[in-house]
Specification:
mainly alpha, two-stranded antiparallel sheet
Protein backbone atom coordinates (compact mmCIF):
# COMPACT_ATOMS: atom_id res chain seq x y z
CA UNK A 1 0.00 0.00 0.00
CA UNK A 2 1.24 3.50 -0.68
CA UNK A 3 2.22 5.74 2.21
CA UNK A 4 -0.78 8.00 1.49
CA UNK A 5 -3.26 5.12 1.61
CA UNK A 6 -1.74 3.77 4.84
CA UNK A 7 -1.65 7.20 6.52
CA UNK A 8 -5.38 7.72 6.01
CA UNK A 9 -6.35 4.43 7.67
CA UNK A 10 -6.86 3.90 11.38
CA UNK A 11 -5.03 0.92 12.90
CA UNK A 12 -8.32 -1.02 13.16
CA UNK A 13 -9.11 -0.29 9.50
CA UNK A 14 -5.68 -1.63 8.56
CA UNK A 15 -6.30 -4.82 10.51
CA UNK A 16 -9.78 -5.09 8.96
CA UNK A 17 -8.28 -4.87 5.45
CA UNK A 18 -5.61 -7.50 6.18
CA UNK A 19 -8.20 -9.85 7.67
CA UNK A 20 -10.77 -9.24 4.93
CA UNK A 21 -8.22 -10.24 2.30
CA UNK A 22 -7.81 -13.63 4.00
CA UNK A 23 -11.30 -14.94 3.17
CA UNK A 24 -13.53 -12.05 2.08
CA UNK A 25 -15.62 -12.25 5.27
CA UNK A 26 -16.31 -8.69 6.46
CA UNK A 27 -17.98 -9.78 9.71
CA UNK A 28 -15.04 -11.94 10.76
CA UNK A 29 -12.59 -9.21 9.72
CA UNK A 30 -14.44 -6.60 11.80
CA UNK A 31 -14.31 -8.87 14.86
CA UNK A 32 -10.60 -9.54 14.31
CA UNK A 33 -10.03 -5.77 14.07
CA UNK A 34 -11.56 -5.31 17.51
CA UNK A 35 -15.04 -4.10 16.66
CA UNK A 36 -18.02 -5.27 18.73
CA UNK A 37 -19.17 -8.80 17.92
CA UNK A 38 -22.84 -7.82 18.28
CA UNK A 39 -22.61 -5.31 15.42
CA UNK A 40 -19.70 -6.75 13.43
CA UNK A 41 -21.88 -7.55 10.40
CA UNK A 42 -23.07 -3.95 10.13
CA UNK A 43 -19.61 -2.56 10.91
CA UNK A 44 -17.96 -4.78 8.30
CA UNK A 45 -20.44 -3.70 5.63
CA UNK A 46 -19.99 -0.04 6.62
CA UNK A 47 -16.19 -0.32 6.44
CA UNK A 48 -16.36 -1.83 2.95
CA UNK A 49 -18.33 1.21 1.79
CA UNK A 50 -15.77 3.74 3.10
CA UNK A 51 -13.84 5.09 0.13
CA UNK A 52 -10.41 4.96 1.78
CA UNK A 53 -10.97 1.35 2.88
CA UNK A 54 -12.27 0.38 -0.56
CA UNK A 55 -9.27 2.04 -2.25
CA UNK A 56 -6.82 0.31 0.08
CA UNK A 57 -8.54 -3.05 -0.52
CA UNK A 58 -8.44 -2.54 -4.30
CA UNK A 59 -4.75 -1.62 -4.15
CA UNK A 60 -3.83 -4.66 -2.02
CA UNK A 61 -5.92 -6.94 -4.24
CA UNK A 62 -4.28 -5.58 -7.39
CA UNK A 63 -0.83 -6.13 -5.87
CA UNK A 64 -1.72 -9.73 -5.04
CA UNK A 65 -2.97 -10.38 -8.56
CA UNK A 66 0.20 -8.85 -10.04
CA UNK A 67 2.46 -10.80 -7.70
CA UNK A 68 0.80 -14.10 -8.58
CA UNK A 69 0.66 -13.16 -12.27
CA UNK A 70 -3.04 -13.93 -12.43
CA UNK A 71 -4.43 -12.83 -15.76
CA UNK A 72 -7.64 -13.65 -17.58
CA UNK A 73 -5.53 -15.23 -20.32
CA UNK A 74 -3.75 -17.51 -17.86
CA UNK A 75 -6.97 -18.54 -16.10
CA UNK A 76 -8.69 -19.28 -19.40
CA UNK A 77 -5.63 -21.25 -20.57
CA UNK A 78 -5.72 -23.44 -17.47
CA UNK A 79 -9.47 -23.89 -17.83
CA UNK A 80 -8.98 -24.93 -21.45
CA UNK A 81 -6.43 -27.55 -20.36
CA UNK A 82 -9.00 -29.05 -18.01
CA UNK A 83 -11.70 -28.98 -20.66
CA UNK A 84 -9.75 -30.39 -23.61
CA UNK A 85 -7.30 -32.95 -22.17
CA UNK A 86 -7.04 -36.39 -23.78
CA UNK A 87 -7.27 -39.20 -21.17
CA UNK A 88 -5.52 -41.53 -23.63
CA UNK A 89 -2.31 -39.60 -23.00
CA UNK A 90 -2.20 -41.04 -19.47
CA UNK A 91 -1.10 -44.41 -20.87
CA UNK A 92 1.75 -45.82 -22.93
CA UNK A 93 1.35 -48.07 -26.01
CA UNK A 94 0.83 -51.17 -23.86
CA UNK A 95 -1.93 -49.54 -21.78
CA UNK A 96 0.15 -48.98 -18.65
CA UNK A 97 -0.18 -45.72 -16.75
CA UNK A 98 2.69 -43.39 -17.57
CA UNK A 99 4.84 -42.10 -14.73
CA UNK A 100 3.83 -38.50 -13.96
CA UNK A 101 7.11 -36.98 -15.24
CA UNK A 102 6.49 -38.59 -18.65
CA UNK A 103 3.01 -37.06 -19.01
CA UNK A 104 2.66 -33.83 -20.97
CA UNK A 105 1.69 -30.60 -19.19
CA UNK A 106 -1.96 -30.72 -20.23
CA UNK A 107 -2.42 -34.31 -19.05
CA UNK A 108 -0.67 -33.63 -15.73
CA UNK A 109 -2.91 -30.60 -15.17
CA UNK A 110 -5.99 -32.80 -15.68
CA UNK A 111 -5.00 -35.22 -12.90
CA UNK A 112 -7.10 -34.15 -9.91
CA UNK A 113 -5.78 -36.88 -7.60
CA UNK A 114 -3.72 -40.04 -7.69
CA UNK A 115 -4.20 -42.82 -5.12
CA UNK A 116 -1.63 -45.58 -4.82
CA UNK A 117 -2.63 -48.61 -2.79
CA UNK A 118 -0.19 -51.46 -2.15
CA UNK A 119 -1.69 -54.84 -1.29
CA UNK A 120 -0.15 -58.11 -0.33
CA UNK A 121 -2.16 -61.13 -1.39
CA UNK A 122 -1.70 -64.82 -2.18
CA UNK A 123 0.09 -64.02 -5.45
CA UNK A 124 2.43 -61.53 -3.78
CA UNK A 125 2.44 -57.75 -3.62
CA UNK A 126 0.31 -55.74 -6.00
CA UNK A 127 -0.25 -52.07 -6.57
CA UNK A 128 -3.58 -50.48 -7.34
CA UNK A 129 -3.54 -47.06 -8.94
CA UNK A 130 -6.60 -44.84 -8.97
CA UNK A 131 -6.50 -41.72 -11.09
CA UNK A 132 -9.19 -39.08 -10.70
CA UNK A 133 -9.35 -36.61 -13.57
CA UNK A 134 -10.77 -33.12 -13.82
CA UNK A 135 -14.42 -33.00 -14.83
CA UNK A 136 -14.34 -32.15 -18.53
CA UNK A 137 -18.06 -31.42 -18.66
CA UNK A 138 -18.08 -28.76 -15.96
CA UNK A 139 -14.93 -27.13 -17.38
CA UNK A 140 -16.43 -27.09 -20.87
CA UNK A 141 -19.54 -25.50 -19.39
CA UNK A 142 -17.43 -22.82 -17.66
CA UNK A 143 -15.71 -22.00 -20.93
CA UNK A 144 -19.04 -21.99 -22.75
CA UNK A 145 -20.52 -19.59 -20.22
CA UNK A 146 -17.48 -17.32 -20.57
CA UNK A 147 -17.93 -17.34 -24.33
CA UNK A 148 -21.70 -16.80 -23.86
CA UNK A 149 -22.55 -19.99 -25.72
CA UNK A 150 -25.19 -20.98 -23.16
CA UNK A 151 -27.11 -17.81 -22.46
CA UNK A 152 -30.59 -18.27 -21.04
CA UNK A 153 -33.29 -16.42 -22.90
CA UNK A 154 -36.69 -15.66 -21.55
CA UNK A 155 -39.33 -15.18 -24.19
CA UNK A 156 -42.76 -13.85 -23.46
CA UNK A 157 -45.66 -12.52 -25.42
CA UNK A 158 -48.39 -10.17 -24.41
CA UNK A 159 -48.60 -7.83 -21.51
CA UNK A 160 -48.35 -8.40 -17.81
CA UNK A 161 -50.31 -6.24 -15.41
CA UNK A 162 -49.05 -4.93 -12.12
CA UNK A 163 -51.54 -7.20 -10.36
CA UNK A 164 -50.09 -10.25 -12.12
CA UNK A 165 -46.55 -9.24 -11.17
CA UNK A 166 -47.53 -8.77 -7.54
CA UNK A 167 -49.49 -12.00 -7.35
CA UNK A 168 -46.90 -13.97 -9.29
CA UNK A 169 -49.40 -14.93 -11.98
CA UNK A 170 -48.01 -14.07 -15.38
CA UNK A 171 -49.79 -16.83 -17.25
CA UNK A 172 -52.27 -14.89 -19.31
CA UNK A 173 -52.30 -12.17 -21.86
CA UNK A 174 -54.14 -9.14 -20.61
CA UNK A 175 -55.46 -7.71 -23.82
CA UNK A 176 -58.95 -7.23 -22.37
CA UNK A 177 -59.85 -5.68 -19.07
CA UNK A 178 -62.44 -7.11 -16.72
CA UNK A 179 -63.96 -3.76 -15.85
CA UNK A 180 -64.79 -0.62 -17.70
CA UNK A 181 -62.17 2.12 -17.63
CA UNK A 182 -62.95 5.00 -15.36
CA UNK A 183 -64.37 8.13 -16.95
CA UNK A 184 -61.74 10.75 -16.20
CA UNK A 185 -63.72 13.59 -17.74
CA UNK A 186 -65.45 15.25 -14.87
CA UNK A 187 -67.89 18.06 -15.72
Amino acid sequence: MSADATAKLTPRQGIFIAEYLVDGNATRAAIAAGFAVSSADVTGARLLKKSKVAKALALRHARRVDKLEITAERVLGELAKLAFYDPGKLFDESGDLLPIPQMDDVTRAAVASLDVEKRFGKQGPSTILKVKLADKGSNLERLGRYLKLFTDRVEHGGRVTLEQLVSGDSSGDTTERDSEPEDRNVA
